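Z., the sequence and structure:
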Amino acid sequence: MTDDHTDAERDRATDGGHTRGGVPSASNGLLDRFSVAFGRRFLVGVLAVTLVFLIGPVLLTFVASFFQSWTGIAPSGSLTLIHWEQALGLTETVGASRGLGTWVVDVPATGLAVRLPASIAFSMLLALAGVGINLLVGIPIAYAVTRYDFYGRDLLNAVAVLPIVPGIILGIAFLRTYPNLPSAVALVIGYSLLKAPYMVLAVQASFESMELRQLEESARSLGASWPRTFLTVLVPNARRGIVSGSIVCWTLAAAEFNFSYIVYSRGPKPFSLFLFENISNNPFQRAAAAVSIYFLIVALVTALLRATGERGFSTGGVQ
């Protein structure tokens, strides 16, 4: 009787090839052995194929911008910079932005001075101004919905993080409501409104990972006022979310086409219209050069913002 009872318990404990408590036994199934042997390689392979599929066309477009022509599946002809010069408006071609002048942009910490067409430099400033407004508005909103429980909190959070109004609708609304508003001002305000959800979401994620109440109480116990606590303790600790939100907002604002196309009236063109002008009714190599310029500028701004986040920043207190 005792032996039968022991055998029955042993059978129940190892039922289904698993020991008691859900720990796999030595008799693993075929699927388990396959996942152990090839699981990591399979995941690496899927990741590699995905990266090639996404990055391959970008790299091919960048390379093609330096060739005279593209026939078949690969670029051909000798190397040339004429397509870049045409895209930048440095040569007399139809649709070039020649006559708008150039701006000299100093790259921080490198000592380099980059000469850019006025339209590109102007568009970079517009997008940065929109990011500035996102920072001034998005950080307090993200802090409020994370830290406090108040009436209308869920509604404010929903409005702040959902891109409710498309760019084309907001552009039409701006034209009807503010017909005399300068296009540069309208573009900055529009960029900030359209991209604000990305800033709020990024900063809110950083605040949610922090013990806000404990940090505030510690700072206040040391004699810091609430504004000083917020600016010198909470904001610097949320720098990763702030930098991530700034990168996303700037990248999307620089390429915002619908709103820019409707609101723009005069002066240097926004970057999205620069791309549209070079892509429409132009050879592929010139369009490739314009797209490559956009990617290079995005990479430069992203690197500068990431370097700022890694070094840390201060609003008057800790770093």
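The beta strands are 67-71, 74-79, 102-107, 112-117. DSSP finds 13 helices and four strands in the chain.

Let me know what you think.
H.
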